[in-house]
Amino acid sequence: MATGTIISLGLYFLAMLGIGFFAYRQTDTSVEGYMLGGRQLGPAVTALSAGASDMSGWMLMGLPGAMYVAGISAGWIAVGLIMGALANYYLVAPRLRVYTEVANNSITLPDYFENRFADDSRLLRVIASVVIVIFFTLYTSSGVVAGGKLFETSFNLSYEVGLYVTAGVVVAYTLVGGFMAVSMTDFVQGCIMFVSLVMVPFVVIAELGGPGQAIDAIQAIDPALFNPFKNASSGQSLSVIGIVSLMAWGLGYFGQPHIIVRFMAIRSVNDLPSARRIGMSWMVVSIIGALATGLFGMAYVTAQPGVSIDPETVFIYLSQILFHPLIGGFLLAAILAAIMSTISSQLLVTSSSLTSDFYQAFLRKDATQGELVIAGRISVVVVALTAIFLAYDRNSTILNLVSNAWAGFGAAFGPLVLFSLFRRGMTRRAALGGMIVGAVTVLLWIYLPVTIGGQSLSNWMYEIVPGFVLSSLTIVILSKSGSPRDGVTETFDRFRQTLLGASTKP
């Protein structure tokens, strides 16, 4: 590897560790400080932290790979994601920020569910925590897989070494600095990703001779690559169900703990409009850059005699071929940034759940704040080791791992979060039933040996669609058969009054 590339990556690693140490010095020693940064995030950090933790390694590897293979028909995923993210900022962000504080200062999503529905049985907390641990294990593994592929492809290191290096650096700064370190590093990583996703497609298009010649090159390979209603890899036209399945990725935003926890941590509801403008601008430009990298990168690779690459490594290939080693190192750091920002967020959310929702709730109710922070740090290490173990299956594609976990959270938590914030008369039974039905539907849809038209259920329709619909129906039906527990409606009314007061402040 060129010296310039090593220097760039070395500086990146040092910067991330330095930010972690700085956050450690700035964060108080309470569990709220470690898990939520004391609810003091500014709008820019909130926006880029949410975006970077959302757009993981799949943004620079999975999504360009899908575009590389299928053409612009893969862009329906991007349309759904942008719509879902925007709706999340409007529907969930302000309400969740207020309600989690009104509901006994909830610091995790399971904590919020328990307090929102006055669940003294603790079933809501336990089942929500189990869902988080199961699906985040898959999700975190996808990031570790991406790190393994990156180190194997770019640095001629073994895949297994890549797993440990990627996870090791993330664990180091997450372990020390907690939520504040994760959010601050996410901000820096989001900036790196943004610059990279503008730079790479711009240079590739220039190498192809400009926009006109680049488009001609793609059409010469296969005109279907520019057909939004046809999958170029299979040659099959997209059905209405296929388009709905791709756009349904947007439904997942309402239930992603590592994203919506940023809304819980922002310092004020009045900062959310600024965060929304920053976050959505970043997201639109970054997604367009990722799609362009895959499509025009495919044209560039095809023009190189004897070159064959894994489609999910097209960004890596272009960064090595088209740029000076010093800049190439910066671009590889962008991939690491995308991977690490999501892994760190997922590690912290899973750690928060294990610490607050299991350890404190059932094992050590009188644990001191310092003890809970230590338990959280131990949980980070345990979850990371589990993710590394699962990532040893190198045959798993990044996009498939992400899609399964994304659907699981979207179906289990998405309807529950939305109804809990908008439906005053929602009951504990409805919350429990909706969460279970959503999660189980997704798992059955993925693993049942049933086919439709020769396709598995998951290939016929993305599992988040039936999961989200059935979870929502369950919540509506069960809410009609009972009444909320004592104090629940009064807390909801107090939440609405607080929200109204916050939104009218100058």
UniProtKB/TrEMBL annotation:
Keyword Transmembrane helix: yes
Membrane topology, record value: Multi-pass membrane protein
GO MF, one annotated term: sodium ion binding
Transmembrane segments annotated in the record for this chain: 6-24, 67-91, 123-141, 161-180, 187-206, 238-261, 282-303, 315-339, 372-392, 398-418, 430-448, 460-478
Gene3D superfamilies, alphabetized: Sodium/glucose cotransporter (1.20.1730.10)
Protein localization: Cell inner membrane; Cell membrane
BP-aspect Gene Ontology terms: proline transport
Key words, A-Z: Amino-acid transport, Cell inner membrane, Cell membrane, Ion transport, Membrane, Sodium, Sodium transport, Symport, Transmembrane, Transmembrane helix, Transport
Pfam families for this protein: SSF
Domain of life: Bacteria
Catalytic activity: L-proline(in) + Na(+)(in) = L-proline(out) + Na(+)(out)
Principal place of residence: membrane
Function: Catalyzes the sodium-dependent uptake of extracellular L-proline.
Stated family: Belongs to the sodium:solute symporter (SSF) (TC 2.A.21) family.
Protein name per the record: Sodium/proline symporter
